[in-house]
Structure formats: C-alpha cells, structure tokens
Amino acid sequence: MRRYAPLAFIVCSIILILLAINTYWIYHTAADNSQQIMMTRSKITVYSTLPSQLAADIAADYEKSNNVKVNFVLLSQKELIDKIKNNTESLNGQADVFLASKDVLEQAAVKNILMAFSSEQEDVILKKFKDKTGLWIGIWYDPIVFCANRDYLQNAPYIPKTWQQLADTQNLRIGMTDFVASDIASDLFYALIKQYGEKDAFAILHKMHPKVVQYAKYLSTPVRMAGMNEVDISVAVQSEAIRYLNNNYPLTIIYPEDGTYYQLTGTALLKNAPNKAEANRFIKWLMGNEVQFCLQKNGIFFVPTNYSTLAYKIYAGKNLQLFSDKEPLAEEEKDRLLDKWVKTIRLK
Which residues constitute the signal peptide according to the record (predicted)? Predict the structure, then answer.
C-alpha cells in the first residue's frame, strides 16, 4: 500500500486545487455579476442645455469618481422649454435632473414638475442665484465682459468701462456675437433692454453698430479677434476670455462698472425622478469643488455660486457688478424686440 501513498497524495492535491479554483471562480463571478448589476442600476438621466463636450467631460468625471453612469439628453434652450411647456408627460419617470439655464429652470418651476432640494452647500449660495422656494439652485455663472487687446490699452487715450462709454468711444473697433446666433448673445440683448429700457438700450446698440467689425456666429470668435488685434475690444463671455488668456493671447478683461449680464446655469431635481437618491448625490457634487476641478482641467472657467469653493477665490475682489434681476420678458415681446434690432440696426 505504501507504494500507492504518493499517488494518492498527488490525486488529493489535484482535487483540492480544482476545488480551490472552482471556489475562486464562483466567488469572483458572483462579485462581478453583483458589480455589473450595481453598475446597471446606478445611473441617472440629465436633461441639459450644456454644450456636448462639456456634458461629456462632466459625465466622464462623475462616473469615474462615483461609479455612476450619467446619461445626458442634450437639447437647445428653446427645445427644452417647449418640452416643459407642452410635453411634460414625456419627462415623467424618464428624467432625474435638469442642468440648464435659469430661463429653463424657471419654466420648469411654473409647471410644478420640480422637487425642492436642500443641502449645506445650497445654504451658502446667495438668494439671487436660486429659487426662493428651493426648486432650483444656480451652480455657476458666466458674465459678459469687455475683452481688450493689450496693445490697444497701452495706446488708447481713453478706456471704456461702461456700456455707454463703449458706445460713445471714438475710433474703436468692436467684436461681438450676433444676437440671433446664440442663446447667450440674445439673452444679453434682452438684459440690456431690461436694465436700461428699450429706448436707451437701442440708443446704445445703435451707436455701437458702426464700430462693430463683425457680428460673429460663435461666442469664441470675438475673443480670438481681440487677441489677434483684429478688433480693439470684444463683448464676450468671461469663460472664453480666460481660455484665450491661458493660451497666452495678449488680452485684458474689463468688468463693466455699470453692471453686466450673466448666464446662470443651475440644477433641479424632478418630482418624478426614478433615481432620486443618485440624483441628489449628483446635485451635491455639482455644487462642490469637484465639478470646478473637472471644468478647469478641461479649460473651462465659470464663476461658482458657492463662495466656499476654492474656485470662487479666483474671482474675489474683481469688482464684478451684475445686472439686477428683472421680470422676464414674454416670448412674444422677445421676438418683437429682436426683430426690431435686426431691421433697424443689424441690417442698416
């Protein structure tokens, strides 16, 4: 029998190894399946007006750090407002979060499809950046600034620092985005009218018109033109101005002393969101430092509404004056005013 002992030992060892392999495979297969189920269940759907690349950057960063898939449904501001006004049933049980402009969120609040949200981060955000009943919260904004070529500033006898001065300055080349080409550009147009009144706002724009070298199609074009010395001053969003500054273009940002329009982006939780817990965590993330780190590493610089974030400290002491909030214009009034500008100024 002794001569069979080694053989028996070998057979037993093989059996034990096979059992160990089988147990390991079962355990890890179960763990992988469990993780796959978790991954399938951990997702949120966000209806948004963000640019596609910005949405992709946010989705990738949040998924990487939180193991949650973010499915963005991207629409224009007009498309999302139309959906909210005329087809809210299509959002029920489909959308978890809105991440969009203030205009969109205000329309959603009126339709009673949002759910109030509160957190420590939300508590430090100024009232002007959030709904008074807590239905939506502004998370960042992008102000309109004057972006000046440095050579122009060194030689100019006078530097315009208000909207009226910009219109009155002689021998000035201006670049700006066409009001009919972009939501942000048209919103600036409406904001000027609400701030100064129709008569005075049109007077400012009428004086500016002969100085405008180009009404551009894109928000970035006026900044590039100022950086290339094709215009002296551009009317532009700050985020684009900072992006070009970081690429060593010879530019200086001037904040209008009489105030300026700002594009506020905010977020809201839908009342019938199918993934409320994950949606709440995503909204909290949007108000913190992490989303600002995500934006800045991708070359995007917005002003956070949460003044406790590290990113906000960049803008402290910049003397950034914002237009006061006014009653929104009706869509019919917006159409009338824009049509008037096109006919009496733009095409003259």
Answer: none
